[in-house]
Each structure stands twice: as C-alpha cells, then as structure tokens.
Amino acid sequence: MPEATDPKPPRLGQRIYRWLDLRTGIGALLHEALDEPIPGGARWAYVFGSVLLFLFISQTITGIFLALYYVPSATSAHTTVAYIVKEVTGGSFLRSLHAYGSSAVVIVVLLHLIQTYLYGAYKGRRELLWISGCVLLALMLAMAFTGYLLPWDQKAYFATTVGTNMASDVPLIGTWIKRFMRGGDEMGTLTVSRFFVAHVFVIPAMLIALIATHVYLFRKAGAAGPPSEDPVNPRLPTERFYPRQVVMDTIIALVMILILGSLAHFAPTELGPKANPAETQYVPRPEWYYLPIFQWLKYWRGPYAIFGIIVIPAITAALLVLVPFIDRRLERRAWRRPIAVGVFVLILSGFVFMGLMSVHDDQRDPSIAKQVSRQHEATQQFMREPFEPEGTASSFSAPVVAVLDPLAAAGKKVYEGESCDACHGEGGIGSAAAPKLAGATAQKSTDELSNLLKKPTPKMIDGGMQAVNVSDEDLKALIAYIKSLK
Amino acid sequence: MSGAVRLGACFNERFCKTRLTYVPMNDASFAERAGRNAQQVVSRRSFLGVLIGFAAAVMSAALSVPLIRFALHPLVATTTKIVWSDVGKLDEFGSLTAPVKKLIEVEQRDAWRRIVSEKAVYVMPPENGAVRVLSPICPHLGCSIPWNEEKQEFICPCHGAVFAKDGVRVSGPSPRSMDDLETKIENGIVKVRYEYFRQLIPQKERLS
C-alpha cells in the first residue's frame, strides 16, 4: 500500500476517512456511486435524471413538513391549508415550493423522456430500464393527481370531481373504479383520506422502490453515451461521473431551486375558497399538464367515445412502453430513425396542440372567460381575508352569543321558555334530536321562518318538531333571536 | 502537481487502478497519476469536492431556514389569545368565609381551532371588599391543588406543598405562594384573566 512508502504522516481528515472506510467500506461505496464511466464524457444533456432525484428529495422534505399542520378530512383540510398559508411562518412559501415542485417534476420527467428517446438510449438491453421509467412517469402523474385534491378548495374539488368521473368511462369496471377512488358515490371526507393515503404512503413507497430499480438497472446497463455510440459495447473513451457530470448536475439542481424559490417567494400558490359542492357555476380546469387530456376528451362524445377515451390513449401508452421491443435496431442517431422519431414528435406536438387549444377555447368563450375571471377574483378575495379558525363543534358549551338587539334578547327568553333548547340546544348549537339552528337560519327570510314555525313541514313534524304557538310579538322576537345565532 | 482542477480524475483511485481499465477523457496524465499515493488523490479532488460541497451546503442552508421556521412556528407565535372569563356575580362572593372553587370557561385558539375550555379557579373570601381569584396550579410542578376543608389549607397532592387559607406558602417544595389571577368587575360580574405562570422559580412570571 502507498502508505508504507510515504514519508509524510497522513492528515487528520484522511485518517478519519480511512478509519470510516475500514469499518464501513465507504470508499467502495463512493467509488461505485461516483466513478461510473460515461462513454464520450459528461454532457449537459445527461443532467435530467439527477435533477429528478433532487426534486423528488425536495418534494419529500417539503411534503413531510406540510404534514405537520395538515389534517386530511373534508371538515379540516381546507382550514388547515388556510392556516398553513395565512398563519404559519413560511407556510405559504413551503406550500408554494411543493406545488411548483410538482410542476417542475412533470417538466423534468418530460425532458428526461425526450432526451432518452431522441438519443435512442433505450436500446441495447435496456428494455426493463425504459419500462421502469414509464412506470415512474405514471406514478409521478398519480402523485400530481392525488396531491391536487388535498387543499379541498373549489379548484381542487371540481377538478377532481371531473378527474374521477373520467374513470367511469372505462368499460365494465369504470363505475367501480370511480367509487373506489372516491370511497363512495360522491366526493367527500373519504375521498380526502383516500387521496391522502395514496399521496403520502402508497405511491411514495412505490416511487422509492421503482427509483431504486431504475437506478440499479441504469448502472447495470451502463451509461449509453452519445447517439453515435454502440449501446451494447461502448467504444468511445470514457469519463467518470465524478467530477464533471456531478458539477453539471449540481449546477442545474441549483438553478432549479433558484427558480422554484423565486416563484414561491414572488408568486406564491393561491388557495381558493373552501369546496362548495352546491356551487353550480364553477368552471373546473385541471392543472396545466392535464389540459391536453382534458381537451382531447372534449372531442369524443357519442358511440365512438370509447375510441377516444380508451382505445387511442391505451395504444399510445402501449407504444411508449413497448418502444424498445418495437424499435430493435442498434442504430441510435435520430436522423437514421425517421419513423420512431417522427411518431414521437407527432404525438408530442399533439399534446402541445391540445393544451394550447384548451387555453384558446376558454379565452374564446366569453361566458367561460368571465366565470374564470370571477373564480380568480374569489380566490384573490379569499387570500386577502384573515385566517378564520374552525368553530367549536366539539365544545360542551354554547357559543358565546352577544345578544345586543333587545328584540333578540326577548326572543332568547321565548326560545328557552318554549323549550326549543331542549332539542335544538343552548344557543341553537343543535343536538342528536334536532338540527343546528345557528348559522342555518340566518339566510332564511323572516316570513319563511315564521311559516315554518307556525306550520312545520311534514319532515320536520316527523323529526319531532311541533308548531310554535305564541303571540305574533313573541314569534317576531324568537325569529330575531334564532336569526342572530352564529 | 498543484491543486488545479483536473477533469476526469478518479474519485477513489485505489479502485480505479485495480478494477477499471477505462482511460479518462481529457487526461493524458491519468496513468502517471494512477501511481500516486492516497494523500495526493485527496488533494487533487479537493478543489471540486469543496466547490460542490460548498454549493450543496449553501443550498441546504438556504432551504433549511424556512423549513425550521415553519416547524418552530407554534413555539414562536402566540396561538393562545387570553380573554376575560366570567367567574360569577359579585354578590355571590360577598359572604365567603373559605376559598371556593369555581369553573370558568376560557375561549382559546388551539392552532386552527377556536375552542372553549373549562378551567378551575379559587375565589377567595373578600378582604376589604376586594375580590381575589387564585390559580389552582401549584408553582412547584404544576399539579392542581385541592382545598382541604378539614385542615383549612391548600395541600398539593403531588409533593405535599402546603398553602394557607389565603394562598400564602406554608411548607413543602413550592418556591412561592399560589398565583393571583388578574380580576376586574364589570356590571357586578367578576371577571378573570386565566393565565399560566412559570414553575419552580420564586417570582411570579407570566408564560406568554
């Protein structure tokens, strides 16, 4: 060993490294990780895989931190995200980093795919490497889809309603898939917890396993090098992964974090008003990377819809997954593979075209454009409002009612005197026997309430409600009181 | 050979020399350098290593600041807003001869929730017409102190701290007397600000 012939004693850093190496084998590990030979040398074109790994780690860390304050239920999801955005220090920034990060993942996955395809880097015993990459693409899109619902605002709710409805177009099992995803026929609290579990536990576990497989298969096959290289027996002189390729990857990762950080800081992701299933005007639009599919589905109605919705996408996906089996020649240069590259470019431009058409359609239709701008305004308005904490549903006591109005104060006496509180609870908080009045009665008109109190509907009578038999004056006071309840 | 940037250097030459036969690009001197010892390998790769390490350190430091602030938010922000709670009508307490326990309702913020929680306080027999309300929390380690009717003393069940009828420390491990809560009287109603105080110190110090 060189140490024996070296006159100088080793420095402290080297001694620590040697100590660690003898016990952990870290030297062999670093060698394995960093001395990967790249035929033809390091290139900027090869950075995408490393950048994706970096983004995945960033998404994992920001996601774990967001989970500190997030509660996956239909009642609390929106409040907790609003709390993160409006109250928690750095909350808006972190949430934006995570949201923009998901878009960045989709962009870099596409660039990684385009680079690999155009370089013919799926050739030469790399079929499994390619297929694992395709599965990773699908998992990333699933992450984006499940994460989109979690804030439970209008946008998230309606986009996911449309998204899960698409599943019901699948023949035979479509309805079942939709119900499975939603946890029932309707979107509700079970949908949130299902999407949360998928987004936080199930898909990430699959992602980690597949990333490990993908990297392992990549190292097994070796870097493919430039398109002129033989994919099975590389002949070009090699350069090791470290240091030049590592430096390039690090620079791009740095640029990436700068872009994401600036976006998150200067243009933070907005949160809209809480999901309101009763809203009928809402125009749902998916996140930008789902726009092409969204637009495509618009064109397929009627008996041939099955072709557009199932057959053509299935053929496209199958072509993508099976391309290493179809395009088997070892020729990698793009200009010598006109069919493979032509079809790829055609499909890719189709996607871009569909996305642009979707945006164009929305701008051309004045009623949609108007509604979209209304929705945008509602979001802006919600972002300006201060954080509103969740009420005291579980509290044992009635909400503190400031009875300022003397009429309402008189009504309180009637409320208690007529034993309304026996069923509707103190201060109208509701009980197991009768619904909550607080908040619910405020929107109804005095006349409507007066009629309901004098002549309850059959449904109300079934529930045990009795006609209120008091003087008109007392009735007026009672209505003033129950309308004042919040 | 100085410490200039060398492209194509091997990270761990021990392995490259023995296992790999690739010749690095842009580096005619690889064979020559392959024969060098471990110390020189370290110095050769150090410049880029430091550069990458520095970039990574700056990146993670910059990113960890918002993460840490985000996680520490509950420690920094005051999530509990203290408000006045009703104790009862002033006339009720005029004829007290011993401390009496009253339950009050405190409206609080629990992160994203607004909650109303029930707390116990002691209303003391009036001295010169002034109303005193004591916190039942022991200044020693925070147990709730019951009033012992028989002995006419407050006796903490945890470590036996004893307080007189007026809350003054008598014996035991408590560093100070029981804590007075701020009170006021509005329209004949006694109101109190429920608060917590730091334990184990001789002075009364509010926990914000």
Keywords:
heterodimer; A: 486 residues; mainly alpha; Cytochrome Bc1 Complex, Chain C; Cytochrome Bc1 Complex, Chain D, domain 2; 3 domains; 20 helices; 2 strands; 63% helix; elongated; B: 208 residues; alpha+beta; Rieske Iron-sulfur Protein; six-stranded antiparallel β-sheet; 3 helices; 25% helix; 25% strand
Describe this structure in words.
The complex is a heterodimer of chains A (486) and B (208). Chain A is elongated, with a radius of gyration of 31 Å. Chain A is an all-alpha fold and 486 residues long. In chain A, helix 4 runs antiparallel to helix 6, helix 6 (91-118) crosses helix 11 and helix 7 (127-149) runs antiparallel to helix 13. Chain A has 20 helices and 2 strands. Chain A has helices at 2-5, 12-24, 26-34, 48-66, 77-86, 91-118, 127-149, 154-167, 174-182, 189-221, 241-266, 291-298, 305-326, 338-364, 366-384, 406-417, 420-424, 446-454, 458-462, 472-484, and strands at 37-39, 238-240. The N and C termini of chain A lie far apart (82 Å). Chain A has 3 domains: 1-32, no CATH class; 45-218 and 242-384, Cytochrome Bc1 Complex, Chain C, CATH 1.20.810; 406-484, Cytochrome Bc1 Complex, Chain D, domain 2 (Orthogonal Bundle), CATH 1.10.760. Chain B is α+β, with helices and mostly antiparallel strands. Chain B folds into 2 domains: 13-76, no CATH class; 84-193, Rieske [2Fe-2S] iron-sulphur domain (Rieske Iron-sulfur Protein, 3-layer Sandwich). Chain B is 25% helix and 25% strand. Chain B has 3 helices and 10 strands; from the N terminus they run αααββββββββββ. Chain B has helices at 13-19, 30-34, 38-76; strands spanning 84-89, 100-110, 113-123, 133-134, 147-148, 153-155, 162-163, 169-171, 180-186, 189-193. In chain B, the strands form 2 sheets. A 6-stranded antiparallel β-sheet of chain B has the order 1-10-9-4-3-2, with no helix packed on it. In chain B, a hairpin with a 5-residue loop joins strand 7 and strand 8 (169-171).
